[in-house]
Hints:
The complex is a heterotrimer of chains A (about 375), B (about 130) and C (about 260).
Chain A: H1 10-36, H2 51-64, H3 67-76, H4 85-106, H5 115-118, H6 125-153, H7 161-184, H8 197-223, H9 230-261, H10 264-274, H11 284-302, H12 304-308, H13 310-336, H14 352-382
Helix pairs in contact in A: 1-14, 2-4, 2-7, 2-8, 2-13, 3-7, 4-6, 4-14, 6-7, 7-8, 8-9, 8-13, 9-10, 9-11, 11-13
Chain B: H1 4-18, H2 20-26, H3 50-70, E1 77-79, E2 82-84, H4 88-95, H5 99-110, H6 116-119
Chain C: H1 5-30, H2 33-40, E1 48-53, H3 54-57, H4 65-73, E2 89-93, H5 94-97, H6 108-112, E3 114-118, H7 126-130, E4 136-138, E5 144-146, H8 156-160, E6 167-168, E7 194-195, H9 201-204, H10 211-215, E8 221-225, H11 232-239, E9 255-258
Parallel strand pairs in C: 1-9
Antiparallel strand pairs in C: 1-8, 2-3, 4-5, 6-7
Amino acid sequence: MFEKALTGSRKYWMLVFSLAALFLPGFFFYFRQLSEGLVLTGMSRDVSWGLYIAQFTFFVGVAASAVMVVLPYYLHDYKAFGKITILGEFLAVPAVIMCMLFIFVDMGQPFRILNVFLHPTPNSVMFWDTVVLMGYLLLNIIIGWTTLGAERKGVAPPAWVKPVIYISIPWAVSIHTVTAFLYAGVPGRHLWLTAIMAARFLASAFASGPSLLIILSMIVRKHTKFDPGKDALQSLAKIVAYAMALNVFFILLEVFTAFYSGIPSHRHSLTYLFAGLDGHTALVPWMRVSVVLALVALALLIYPATRRNEKFLLVGAASVFISTWIDKGMGLVVGGFIPNPFEKITEYTPTVPEILITVSVWAAGFLILTVLYKIAVTIREEV
Amino acid sequence: MYNKSTVIPGLFLFLAIVSFPLWNNALGGKPRHSPDPKLPTDMKQCVESKEYMRDYHMQLVDRWRDEVVREAKRETISIAGVHYHKSLSGTCMKCHSSKKDFCDQCHDYLGVAPYCWDCHTFPKEKTK
Amino acid sequence: MIVNRRELLKKAGLAGLSVIGGSALYQLISGDRVLAELKNSPSKSTRWAMIIDMKKCARDPGCADCMDACHRAHNVPTIADPKREIKWIWKENFSHAFPELENEYIREDLKQQKFIVLCNHCDNPPCVRVCPTQATWKREDGIVMMDMHRCIGCRYCMAACPYGSRSFNWMDPRKALAEDQINPDFPTRTKGVVEKCDLCAERVDEGKIPVCVEACKEKALIFGNLSDPSSEVRKVLSGRFTIRRKPELGTRPEVYYLV
């Protein structure tokens, strides 16, 4: 089926080459990072995880969100999602690959990555994160490829795909729960030490992933003959609305616990993020934008008239995506390190090489997405 | 076969180019450079025999690493009554003190670049 | 008989995966030698700990003997940019070392004094719990050790340590080490690995004491075996009140402070 990605319209090739061009600068900067070390980034002894891990955290959520179309369709026979499931699965694949790439570029000794498999460590959440992410990648490739291949031949998919699909549903939940556990199990970082971290992660995942899927579906519908259907988009929009509402609610719960209890260690990180601490305010504008976008998104997506209007739906979906990208990415990861264990503050700003390498990984992910979507759409158009 | 007159001679040409190292050496072409490790003059005995070290020094060093760092088994090795630590910098390089004249000779020839010396120090080469 | 290209690819892929999966499973079952040893280890007869007598340390406020000795012996580079600095043992204000004990009306000398801080070699170390490759682990004798060969530089241990004891090599440390500063008896590190105080395991294993303890002219650092009831550490702990950093986190730090 790969040959479907090798022929296409002028627009398709322009997209492919633009993404390849976006990929190149960061690729070369990565080699510089390999030879000079991570000193090329803005990370520090105090803020030891930054933009790369922030992107990783966010995109695990996007990857997990494929379950939001798979579950209704396969488990509950929700016919409206029939056409869109392949787009969901083929979004999960590049999202997981992006996660793995972000981990790889963040590592100090990336060529020792096999040590994670040569010396398996069951007590380490990071070990399990690696295992479940690889498993999830495999599951989605197998499911997407097999169901699409069967459709192309005009037959039902083979019987063994069904149990694999059923497994992918709790597996999707697991990848994001395990990633949340990376943060929630660590004793010294009080922004992260909350029982609802996994719940927050899942809520924001089910808001951010489907909102990206809505945007991608609209793009696909505009430029190809493939239309996932108005009902599918509306159902997704409702899912995003509820998930985002839950996400915002959970954040407010954190704020309440921190500020009503008054415990400094609980309060400090949130104060730093939303108001600044001791004159340090680098992330405040970002977090406030995230809040505004969240409110805009909730308004547009909850109110039926604006949700049904696809122009407003697009704005709402984009707002959800950007808002969660800020708050779950830089907000959560960098905020956890500030203040440091000595109650001092070292702020973090990504450097140009760091940003370009990040752009590279985004470009690679979207390139894979483009190729996979091209295959899926072409087959659908033919069938 | 299409283009038989191009493909078959092309294949033979390719095979000839690819097997150049083999037939060139067989025909007596002298290698430009061969490793010439300079053995230490003061010590006659190493931790293990020359043949063993040539084949297994990598595994030996790895085993020492795990024994010393991970298992805290720092027992010394005895050579001719003298005790030595299981240490690259502390033992091996005390006798094989010139990385350039010994270690690099074979490593460079074979195109391997072990990263041991990124961390483990060795005596400064005399610049003369 | 493999009939076509698809079948060949499928069978080759399956064969490859089963080899990798099988060896990983074997590793998991047979376990790392360190873990196996810890499981089969006899009752601990040695448990190292350190007591820092801040009253003695206070006698010379500007002193940096322990820190200089440690950093010199272990080739710890002096990096100018505080964001990328590497430190194994250093000084912090009381309010920074013990933030939850701070109060406005505390003893004046504690307000002024700089406290020695280092890796606490916890009895329940979160950094060990999170390391995905066992590049850091707790030895039988309580020392939380680092294997720089295995570290993949993921820095999860740095996030997990509640005391900020760990440093990462953001660049090649030899760029910040002069030739004549390098101690030939100890390796340097390379870029991309995490490092921290290792309680001079290489010296302790040979019956010596850590260099910081040895270097302190006020004898403010006391190092000893908690499992030996007649050791100096046990005597001091039973006689005087000590505090530890962030004990509420359950890490059971084994560096005690006499204030």
